[in-house]
Every structure is written in structure tokens, then in C-alpha cells.
Amino acid sequence: MKKQLKKPFLMMAVTALVLVGTLKVGGAMAYFTTYSTASGSVQMNMGFTQTIPHEEVDSRGKHVSVENTGDYDCFVRVRAFAPSDITLSYQPEDSGWTDGGDGFWYYDQILPAGETTATKLNVSYTFPATDSEDAPAEFNVIVVEECTPVLYKADGTAYADWNNVITADTAE
Amino acid sequence: MKKNKILFPKKVALLLGAAAVLLLGSTVGSTRAALTYYSENYSAQMNLKHIGVSLVENGQVVSSRDYVSGNEWSGNTEGKLLANMLGEKEKFTPGKQYDEAISVTNSGDIDTFVRVIITKSWKDKEGRKNAELSPDLIELNVPENSGWVVAEDQSTPERMVLYYTKALAPGETTPGLSDTIRIDESVAQQVNKVTDGSTVTYQYKYDGYSFNLDAEVDAVQTHNAKAAIKSAWGVDVSVSDDESSIGF
Lengths: 172, 248
Known about the structure:
The structure holds two protein chains of two kinds. By secondary structure, chain A is an alpha+beta fold. Chain A is 16% helix and 41% strand. Chain A has one helix and twelve strands, in the order H-E-E-E-E-E-E-E-E-E-E-E-E. In chain A, the strands form three sheets. Chain A has a five-stranded antiparallel beta sheet, with no helix packed on it. Chain A has a four-stranded antiparallel beta sheet with strand order 2-3-8-5, with no helix packed on it. By secondary structure, chain B is α+β, with helices and mostly antiparallel strands. In chain B, strands 7, 8, 10, 11 and 15 form a five-stranded antiparallel beta sheet that branches. In chain B, strands 3-2-1-6 form a four-stranded antiparallel beta sheet, with no helix packed on it. Chain B has a three-stranded antiparallel beta sheet with strand order 5-12-9, with no helix packed on it. In chain B, a hairpin with a 2-residue loop joins strand 2 (60-69) and strand 3. Chain B is elongated, with a radius of gyration of 27 Å.
């Protein structure tokens, strides 16, 4: 009789403990939380960078300007080549061009896409101080123009990487 | 008398007693928690507290999720980032810094702690994930002393986890966890040379590729924050006594 009465009580007690334990676990997990997300992407349609040199020729030499026909702002530089007995000299029209000391003259400003240099670079040539009859009847002065797209440092400063250049030339 | 001893054996009585004490204890605890949480508004408005969070990009809310009642939540949880990074007809320029200030607003009515998980990745022209380009090339600048802390041990080159260390009051917005985004200019230095007569051009190797930014903001109650954050985010934090800040 003692065993018969004790067993149900024991089971009830254990059940009660389990239920109480369940209550505690449920309470411990009730925290207020929320979340939200967002995402996006940008396609690098980098297009191309291209410039075209323009030049006017007269008795004083060549007057060179550069047009940016590409998609990107760029830096440009110009130099010219001529037969060895002809001396070339460069003179910016007003200002805006600087001698880089490496044979190139650099346009001081960034050349925006779709625009042309605001000033021209004049390239003049002189013959040796000998009898002018020795001057060649015809000769070529080749203007080489290079551009490189504008790059930016982490602080936002624009700079040129002249190791990656796009080259075009003219000869007359 | 002998029968009574049989009906209430000592062990059973002890177990029942323990259950009763535990039950009483849990009830008191719940009552105390309820009083702490709902004390001011409960009698006046019969309102539940509402948790809410909004993700903000350059001052504009791009996604949010605010509790309303029952199982009802308001807001759009899948917002769009970088949609206005480029101006009209503006072409993307590698190396250039673009505004990308990501912040968080508490759009609920209880104080919260928040964290943001940023994921960076690349896709090729066909939209496939590209592992050739490093996520490090996507540079999201994180200003110092903004209150945001990068959890270095939880972050990878592709994934950055940031915690705002102060409690965020209802309606309050954090400082930007970031201020700018830029793509390392080395992306533009990888080019293919093309010669056409006297003209040499370089085509960008990664022209047409896309960089992706995903952001997830998580918010959790400040009450009992240590346990709540451990439960919700699985991380251990230290919490100030007034539950106004967390640390690692």
C-alpha cells in the first residue's frame, strides 16, 4: 500500500519540477531583437580614355592643342621630334604648359572628358646658322602626344601614372 | 496517523516543496521584469514596447524593421545601397572617393545596442562572383572616434563587423560608421594594350565588373544586455552598470 501511494506522488513531484524548469528556460530566451539589410552594386563601366592632338602650322612652327575625346578626365603631355640638324623650341601660348625636363611638356590642368586644352603649346624650329640655301626643302616635325587617365590617392589627391599612357602622334 | 505518513512521504514532500519554491521564484522574477519594463506606460497606455532599427545611407533611410504588435512588423528589410553613388551620366572612376556614410537610427521606442555587418565582393561582367579581385580593393573608410569599433576577431577581408559601443536611444542616429568608399586605383592600372596604327590605347581589364556592398544591422535590447547579446549575437561583451555602453 505504501509503495502504491508513493509512486504517483513521486511522478507528480518530478513532473512539477520539469514544468518549472521549462518555464525558466522560456523566460530566459525572451529578448527584443530586430534586424534590417540593404545591398547594392556599382558596375565599373570604365570605358576608355582617348585624346586627339590638333595642330596649326604656320611660318612660326606648330601650335598644338589636345582634345579629350574619351570617357575620362586625363592628364596630357606633348613632345616633338625633328631631324637632328633642326632645333626645336617650345613656348606655351600664354601659360598652362610646363617643361617636365624629360623632353615632354605637361599640360598643367586635368583635361576633362570632351574638352580641349585651353591654351596651345607652340613648337618652333630653327635651322643651323649656315647658308639658308642648305635648309631642306621639306622635313617632318613629328608631334607625339600622350595622355593617362586621372587616378586618385586615398586622400582624394589626383595624380598621373605615366607608366600607363595612351599615345598618338602627328607628322607634317 | 500511520495513513498520513504513507500519503505524504518526506521525499515527495521535499520535491513538491522545491517545485513550489522554484515556481514562486520564477513568478516573482517575471513580475519584477514586467514591472521594470512596462512600469511607466503600462497603466496609462497598455502598450508593449516596440523595438525598431533603420539603416541609413548618406542621411536617407534605406531599410528598416520596426515591431508593431503580435507578429506584425513594419518597414522594408531589403533596401538598396549605392543607388546614388554616381551622378547622372557620371562614369565610375577608380581611386576616387565617393560619399558613403552608413549609420543606424533607432526607429523603435526602447534603447538598443546595434551592430552592422558589412560584406564586400566582386562580380564579373556575367554577374558571377569573382574571387580574382580582392575585397580589400573595396575600401570603405571607417573614421576613428565615431563610437563604432571594428571587431577584428570577427572580421575577414570580405566581412567587417562593427559594434556601436553606446546605447542608442529611441529616435537617435549613430555617427557614420563609414564616410567614403573608393576602389583602389590599382584596378585601373591593370590594362590590356591595343595598337591601332599610330595610336596605342589601353583597355581596362576589369571594365564591366561590379563591386558589391551588403549591410546588415542588428539591434538588441539594452535591458539585461550581456545575456541578450550573447543569446542574439553569440558574442561576449562587458556592459556598464547603467547599461549605457558595451565593451569587448
